Amino acid sequence: MNMQMLFDDSYFMKKALEEAQQAYGKGEIPVGVVIVAKQQIIARGHNLTELLNDVTAHAEMQAITAAANFLGGKYLIDCTMYVTLEPCQMCAGALYWSQISNLVFAASDPERGYRKMGAKLHPKTKVKNGILEEEASELLKRFFIEKRNLN
Does the pLDDT at position 80 exceed 60? Predict the structure, then answer.
């Protein structure tokens, strides 16, 4: 079996979904992310806004910082971010400044996603979406149903 074939968009999105599960377990909105360079995960993140009492502690922000630290520089050229939910405008702005080469997201966010809000990514960033969208959407729906039932 060709090992290269195992490390496709679905493989890395499954890793991002594992991060989203960690957020879910902490009572955070279940969004997870991994950043990949040369077929290797160099950063992981999940939402920590409740735990850190910080509205900027989105999964993407955690991972962008970790990836920059790993690479020893602020630009994420030749990197791919896999995230379970379409980034918000704040995260899109951070991705813009990081000059990330590729963004792959699972579920669209028609209410608060960067596209709805009119935020822009770097012109060189290539975007793919819909990878494991159903799994990511299910996790988010389950989270919000449980939250509503608790209140």
Answer: yes
